[in-house]
Amino acid sequence: MESSLGKKGYEAYAKSTGGKTFDGRDMPPWDALSINIKRAWADASKAIAHEVYEAVKAAEAGPETQPAPSGYPR
């Protein structure tokens, strides 16, 4: 699953940049990437998925379990 999330992230990045790297070069296809680059995309996507999971879990738990914003009393 991590690899497929990494691939989805890579493809979304490619779509948003017109298939260009940060320095304007053409992005290679996913299958041409080294295993280290694929792992990096998988790690990045896993971190994002974790943040989304935690946000959904907190939202489902309700406001009572979330800390009040700084400066606001409970």
Produce a short descriptive summary.
The protein has 74 residues and is mainly alpha-helical. The protein contains two helices and no strands. It has one domain.
What does this structure look like?
By secondary structure, this protein is mostly helical. The chain has one domain. The chain contains 2 helices and no strands. It is elongated, with a radius of gyration of 18 Å.
Keywords for this entry:
mainly alpha; 74 residues; 2 helices; single chain; elongated; 58% helix
How many separate domains make up the residues? 1
- Overall mean pLDDT stands at 89
Q: What is the count of β-strands?
A: 0
Query: In angstroms, what is the radius of gyration?
Result: 18 Å
Q: What are the segments in which pLDDT stays under 50 over at least 5 consecutive residues?
A: none
Structural class: mainly alpha
Outline type? elongated
How much helix is in the residues?
A: 55-70%
| Helix and strand run | HH
Ends apart, CA distance between termini:
40 Å
In terms of DSSP E residues, the strand content is under 5%
Largest sheet: number of strands, sense, barrel closure: none
Number of helical stretches of at least 4 residues: 2
